[in-house]
Write a structure and sequence with these properties.
The protein has a 6-stranded mixed sheet, with no helix packed on it. Strand 10 and strand 11 form a beta hairpin. It is built from 7 helices and 17 strands. The protein has 3 domains: 65 residues; 173 residues, Ribosomal protein S6/Translation elongation factor EF1B (Alpha-Beta Plaits, 2-Layer Sandwich); 136 residues, no CATH class. It is of the alpha/beta class and 411 residues long.
Length: 411
């Protein structure tokens, strides 16, 4: 049968329609459904990714906030003892008395008790443990030995408004002494300059001779558990040293007691610095970098950075009209906040500008946190930088200078 041209065209058109329809139904439509399903999954994964990124950002911010809070807590509590230790108090007070040439006739300690921050009620019993001990143990992942938790549970059952109040451990020491009035004032000054807070709550003196006074004073020691080990060296006891006398009833002074010269007793216990910096691993409870003025208890001059890698720090020291100024920055953080001028004025503690950096050895190969410090010295003084405790194989701290002299010493 012979087809006409028109019929051939119609057959071709019909074949094309069938082909297109089959492609649409069996190929395109399933692929489109699969594509739409993949797009929907992509949107879901994008949302999950955004949630994860938000959680990571929140976690990083939380960790940074925790380190900042830890830093503030450590700074606020560093004047308090980490625990009550009578043996160390006896040794330290005896040394201060000896340095002041004041003779301590006797030491009498009271019982240890917990002093609440707020005034306690009369019917409350004295506790011998700080209420913060359980909190610190829980923070460090240790089993709490403080029975205040049990008391709190019982009190909460009886009265929901009853809560444990923050408290500190306290012990009193009464010292009976004899010496000159000048020696007494020197001893009190040494208590004021002591690294920890010691309160003279009571002082009674009377004149026994023309140039000699006798009396007694009551000293108060306060301690709270610390969240870090910054005081781990404080109560170290070297048992190999010689203490006391071979014969406690011998009134003669030992040679080692009389060997202290005026030069020895006049030496400063702690060297002063103009600026201090600490550099730590990222897994520390504190920021990886902290920089500020030395002995700035207000921490107004402090800047911190918590960076798993290298933190770039710039310090600018300027001299103008016989006065010295400083400013510094680490990333977006600066001090003072307005860095357009010369900065904050400061007084130099010695003949040079001293800079102390406390570093830490690296934990492992993944520990790469550190500081690149650049000092711009536009003064007539040399900047002496001392680095303590840095890693010898892979130092955390690298220093460069521009302008005046910058001397670096690694211990």
């Amino acid at each position: 049968m012979k087809l006409s041209k028109r019929e051939k065209i119609l057959l071709v058109v019909a074949a094309l329609v069938l082909l297109i329809g089959g492609y649409y139904k069996f190929v395109f439509s399933p692929q489109r459904e699969k594509f739409n399903s993949l797009m929907q999954q992509k949107e879901e994964y994008d949302k999950k990714l955004q949630d994860i990124n938000r959680q990571i950002a929140l976690k990083n911010k939380t960790e940074t906030d925790i380190k900042d809070i830890n830093s503030k807590i450590i700074n606020m509590t560093k004047i308090l003892f980490p625990s009550i230790n009578q043996e160390n108090f006896i040794v330290d007070m005896d040394k201060l008395l000896h340095d002041a040439n004041l003779k301590g006739m006797s030491f009498t300690f009271s019982d240890i008790k917990a002093i609440p921050v707020e005034e306690k009620k009369k019917d409350e019993k004295d506790d011998k443990t700080s209420s913060l001990k359980g909190v610190i143990d829980e923070y460090n992942g240790l089993p709490s030995k403080n029975n205040n938790d049990k008391k709190a549970d019982n009190n909460n059952k009886n009265n929901s408004n009853s809560k444990d109040k923050p408290s500190a451990e306290n012990i009193s020491l009464v010292i009976n002494f004899k010496g000159s009035y000048k020696n007494l004032t020197e001893f009190i000054k040494s208590l004021e300059s002591y690294s920890k807070k010691i309160i003279v709550s009571n002082l009674q003196i009377s004149q026994s001779k023309t140039d000699e006074v006798t009396g007694s004073m009551q000293l108060e020691f306060y301690a709270i558990p610390k969240i870090s080990d910054e005081d781990k060296e404080f109560f170290k006891w070297n048992y190999n040293n010689k203490y006391g006398k071979d014969n406690p009833f011998d009134s003669k002074m030992d040679d080692n007691q009389a060997s202290g010269t005026i030069e020895d007793t006049g030496k400063a216990k702690d060297k002063s610095y103009d600026f201090v910096m600490s550099v730590r691993p990222v897994n520390s409870d504190l920021p990886t970098m902290m920089l500020g003025r030395s002995k700035d208890y207000s921490k107004q001059s402090y800047i911190t950075a918590d960076n798993p890698g290298i933190t770039n720090v710039e310090v600018y020291l300027t001299q103008k009209d016989g006065k010295y100024y400083y400013k510094y920055k680490a990333g977006k953080l600066t001090f003072p906040p307005d860095t357009g001028g010369d900065g904050e004025q400061f007084s130099i503690t010695g003949g040079s500008i001293s800079f102390m950096i406390y570093s830490n050895k690296r934990i492992d190969k993944s520990d790469i946190s550190g500081v690149n410090l650049k000092i711009y010295n536009k003064t007539d003084k040399t900047v002496n930088v001392t680095i303590e405790g840095d890693d010898t194989a892979n130092p955390r701290v690298s220093i460069s200078g521009e302008g005046g002299g910058v001397d670096i010493k690694r211990n």
